[in-house]
Amino acid sequence: MFVLFILAYFPTMLWMQDRWFAKDSYYSHGVLIPFITFLLIWQKRNEMKQIKLEPSAWGMGLFVIGIIIHLLSLLLRVYFTSGFSMIIVLAGFVLCVYGKKLLKEILFPVIFLVFMVPLPVLTVINLSFQLKLLSAKMAAVMLNVINIPAVQQGSYIHMTHASVVVEDACSGLRSLIALMALGALFAYWMRSGKLKKVVLFLSSIPVALLTNMFRIMALAIISEFWGAKYVTGFVDGFFGFLVFVTAFLMLTRIEKVLQQGINE
Questions:
Q1: Is 217 exposed, middle or buried (0-12, 13-18, 19+ CB in 10 A)?
Q2: Spans of the chain below 70 pLDDT
Q3: Is the dihedral of CA 144, 150, 151, 153 positive or negative?
Q4: pLDDT of residue 207
Q5: In terms of Cα–Cα distance, which of 43, 116, 40, 52 is closest to 82?
Q6: Nearest to residue 70, comparing CAs of 92, 102, 42?
Q7: 189-224: per-residue pLDDT in tens?
Q8: How far apart are CA 109 and CA 200, in angstroms?
Q9: How far apart are CA 90 and CA 102, in angstroms?
Q10: If we measure between CA atoms, which residue out of 211, 242, 217, 235 comes closest to residue 164?
Q11: In angstroms, how far is the first alpha carbon of the chain from the final one?
Q12: In what order do the strands lie in the sheet with 150-153?
């Protein structure tokens, strides 16, 4: 069955691999997702052994729906929907062969595979464009708040002595997607009710936007006072790394605050 699955989805897997390893990819984290899913399921191995297997005919229906979506996707060369059909097929297979209880036990790891499926190129372009405009606007507002005159024009931020442009790579889309995956993991591991899990997961969105805004602000300040030549290469890469570390710490802090609320 595993071999048939690989053969059926081989074109989709090749497409995902190309997107994962493409230059300036927004989905470089995608290659890690299947391994994380495997580890999450492996952690459940003892609980899964205790579950009585109750195969469900509903699983076959779900399996067939997934296969139909996959075949239509291949016919139309829409690999994005084929990637999602892979998750439907897996869920259908588990439900059909092992039953509802076991599927429920591993439902999150299976759904987590969503984060490995790259969005369509047109969607990525549109999201990246909107995000870089938003990031530029937020950064310009905050620069004025700290008494550094700045005017936003599209994706440009004009200051007294320098101008910076928020490129697609600095739109924050890459960190937003990765942090949403991280936020989902944090929410999954957090011992709390569903509402607080949802709050923690959704908090990854403003955290990604805020940290990216501070990155743009930092680069703008360096350009204004020391020159644009100092915001390329190592410095730009360092702030990119710093953004993710800061976002990780912020998510950790939000989780602790939510946990303290539970304990109280």
A1: buried
A2: 233-234, 261-264
A3: negative
A4: 94
A5: 116
A6: 92
A7: 988 888 999 999 999 999 999 999 998 998 899 988
A8: 18
A9: 13
A10: 217
A11: 49
A12: 150-153, 156-159, 163-165
Question: Does the predicted model carry a pTM greater than 0.85?
Answer: yes
Q: What's the rounded Cα separation, in Å, for the pair 225 and 215?
A: 16
Place of tokens 């999201």: 127
d(CA 26, CA 174): 5
Cβ-count burial of 95 within 10 angstroms (0-12 exposed, 13-18 middle, 19+ buried)? buried
Beta bridge partners of 54: 99
Domain ranges of the chain: 2-118, 122-263
| Encoded tokens for 142 | 């905050």
Contact 55, 99 (CB under 8 A): yes
Q: Are the beta carbons of 2 and 86 closer than 8 angstroms?
A: no
Tokens of 215: 């990155």
26/175 Cα distance (integer angstroms): 8
- Residue found by looking up tokens 């052994």 in the block: 49
C-alpha span between 165 and 132 (Å, rounded) = 9
pLDDT at position 264 = 47
Residues forming a β-bridge with 151 = 158
Rg (alpha carbons) of the chain, rounded to whole number: 22
